[in-house]
Write a structure and sequence with these properties.
Layout: H1 3-22, H2 36-51, H3 55-68, H4 73-85, H5 89-102, H6 107-119, H7 123-137, H8 142-158
Length: about 160
């Protein structure tokens, strides 16, 4: 491969990486000395626990992953989500803030933090997250639609 082609491939990969991570579904990289497949398997197992609503187990698995990758927005987002589902609202908010510090455009963290704001009767902040999602995905992504629906439900219930 020519040097120019190698540079072009690297540039494209660098530009596309944030897009791939924004959806909140990429596994973390392997920690030094840990085979890549082990890190991916551990991540998939943790996500499976979240989806099975086994939040306490998921938190243990996610915290173990976080030790090796403390700035992974996906892991932080899933920790925020799991704590929110267990009604640990302060912890949940802290994890969402960390996820958004790691990736200010993380679609999942913006949606779920918005839902947390609604639980805390902070409608204006939830609407700000919705506005940011609208700019990031043209109001077409699932995260936008999910938060939009949650805000509409909130308004129906709270006048």
């Amino acid at each position: 491969m020519s040097k120019a082609l190698s540079i072009a491939v690297l540039l494209v990969a660098t530009l596309l990486a944030p897009v791939a991570l924004a959806a909140g579904s990429s596994p973390p990289p392997a920690a030094p000395g840990v085979p890549e497949s082990d890190a991916k398997a551990d991540y998939r197992r943790a996500v499976k626990l979240v989806k099975a609503e086994k939040y306490e187990e998921a938190i243990v698995a996610l915290e173990a992953l976080l030790k090796d990758d403390p700035y992974n927005a996906d892991i932080l987002n899933y920790l925020g989500f799991s704590h929110r589902k267990l009604n640990h609202l302060e912890l949940s908010e802290a994890y969402y803030k960390q996820a958004l510090k790691a990736d200010a455009n993380h679609l999942g963290a913006l949606e779920y933090e918005g839902e947390l704001f609604l639980m805390q009767k902070r409608l204006a902040e939830a609407e700000a997250n919705l506005a940011k999602l609208a700019t990031l995905c043209d109001s077409k992504c699932d995260e936008y639609k999910g938060l939009e629906e949650a805000i509409a439900d909130y308004k129906k219930q709270n006048g």
